[in-house]
Amino acid sequence: MKTFRIVIWVAVLIVAGVLGSITLYPKKSSDVVAEAPFGVPFTLVSQSGQPITEQALRGKPTALFFGFTHCPEVCPTTLFELNGWLEKVDPSGDKLQAYFVTVDPERDTPEIMNAYVSNVSKRITGISGPPEKIAEVIKGFRVYAKKVPVDEKDPNGDYTMDHTASVFLLDSAGRFSGTIAYGENPDTAVKKLENLVNKG
């Protein structure tokens, strides 16, 4: 009986050790991932026609949104609300920055982005670029984007885009710090941006 109890305790200790290591190592790896800048390196084009890289997402906390200019509701609403939140949290405009990256580069040239974004905000910068480069950024930033024909019978005709509707929040080192969901309570969104600024 004594031997049986010893065997049981040894088995319990082995199981506990295995479970402990399984719990410990993923935590370590996720901490490492959290320390790295979010997304991937890129060279795209700002709405002013100038080259822009991932370094633009460094130095200040950043609000980053992916969308397209033909978007009927989500994108214009988000840009309008984001502009208001930026004005409230950072009236001087020196603590927080924001970018709007197109998921529809075939139609959203830098000129189109400039006209569209400037009509809504002076605080948000539009970003476009070659389709293959935009595709790399979409994948690297874990954004969902899919072209959807307006008429299923005409797959090569007019289309819209399904896409991630959240605003990504990055700290001043470019690390992921959270999101603001589409339709988020305005007070909650403002609080998230305030926390982002305080975090630096």
TrEMBL record:
Cu cation binds at residues 71, 75, 163. This is Protein SCO1/2. Pfam families: SCO1-SenC. InterPro entries: SCO1/SenC, Thioredoxin-like_sf. The chain crosses the membrane at residues 6-25. The keyword Nucleus does not apply. It comes from Rhizobium lentis. Disulfide bonds join 71-75. SUPFAM superfamilies: Thioredoxin-like. The keyword Disulfide bond applies. GO terms for molecular function: metal ion binding. Keywords: Copper, Disulfide bond, Membrane, Metal-binding, Transmembrane, Transmembrane helix. Belongs to the SCO1/2 family.
